[in-house]
Amino acid sequence: MELRLPPPLIVIITFGCMYGLAQYWPLYTFTFVLQPYLVLLFCLIGTFLGLSAVWSFAKARTTIDPRFPNKTSRLVTTGIYHHSRNPMYLGLFCFLCAAFVYLSALSPLLMIGLFVFYMNHFQIAPEEAVLQAMFGEQFDLYCQQVRRWC
């Protein structure tokens, strides 16, 4: 698998596109009383998911760099990985949801859909293929027990 862009960079690009859509093609704009708190909540959840995932990888002493899944030394299935196979990507998704609420326009939602599509097809699927080749039946069982996103 040859990944050209790391996922955090993909999030930055996605946010830039979301910002552009909100500024130049907002479709429907909105505001509501609890909006800042919802932005904060999404950011906190995203931070929790990301840090929990990094902590689980650190405890297992395996790589967190998704560009090199073949350097994985063990399959992490505990901690946050007991609930989601991709908590880091779920955390990034939460940050994009926070950006959507912050930007207060409907059109940036399109970019979140494209982010999920891209991650599923060009990031997660190749990673899972490598993990399946490395861990075989153990990974298959894990996939049956734990959902991809949440």
- Residues in β-strands, percent: under 5%
Uncertain regions spanning at least 5 consecutive residues: none
Please, how many helices? 5
Mean pLDDT: 93
- How many strand units? 0
Distance between the termini: 24 Å
Biggest sheet descriptor: none
Apparent shape: elongated
Helix content: 55-70%
Structural class: mainly alpha
Rg is: 17 Å
Q: Encode the helix/strand succession as letters.
A: HHHHH
Characterization of the model:
It is a single chain. The protein has 5 helices and no strands. Helix 1 runs parallel beside helix 3 and helix 2 runs antiparallel to helix 3. The model has no long low-confidence stretch (mean pLDDT 93). Helix content is 65%, strand content 0%. It has 150 residues and is mainly alpha-helical.
Protein topology:
Layout (H helix, E strand, L loop, with lengths): L6 H18 L10 H26 L26 H17 L5 H27 L1 H9 L5
Helix pairs in contact: 1-3, 1-4, 2-3, 3-4, 4-5
Protein traits:
single chain, 150 residues, mainly alpha, 5 helices, elongated
What would you say about this model in short?
Helix 4 packs antiparallel against helix 5. The protein is built from 5 helices and no strands. The chain has 150 residues and is mainly alpha-helical.
